[in-house]
Amino acid sequence: xxGGAVHDPRGIGTLTERERQVLALLGQGLANRVIARRxxxxxxxxxxxxxxxxxxxxxxxxxxxxxxxxxxxxxxxPRETVPTDTSPRAxxxxxxxxx
Length: 99
Description:
Helix content is 47%, strand content 6%. It is built from 5 helices and 2 strands.
């Protein structure tokens, strides 16, 4: 069973901007190596960010942190939405800018 911390978004406010970026990518299920490549950092730094995120959020694993990112995505990526496809078939699909 998941801990209560996963459902408590308060810890997200304690994260740095870079930690928020890492958490958003973690929420997509990406490995440290891929997160590092996407952010232009070394894998060891990505791993350190993940460890810091787990501690700050009060969760016990990167999986719980990823679940938290998924559950509270709107807090990580509050930016306005922009259309991904403006064709009539698009049906209003949108993509979060930066996340």
